Amino acid sequence: MSAASLTRREREIAVLAARGLTNKEIASSLVISVRTVDNHLSNTYAKLGIATRGELALVLTDDNG
Fold it and tell me: How far is CA 35 from the centre of its chain?
């Protein structure tokens, strides 16, 4: 599956995670809880069939050409 299947918020969080921000940094910048970030990333990983931020970065790079 491609990153196009992600919700706007999942993609927003995925991009920040792929840039190397920690879940705590993402939560702080988006004014949401760390648990919400965890949930969005778990959903993202499941949708994309991946398990790491490195894989996430590759998927996002591939989708952007």
Answer: 13
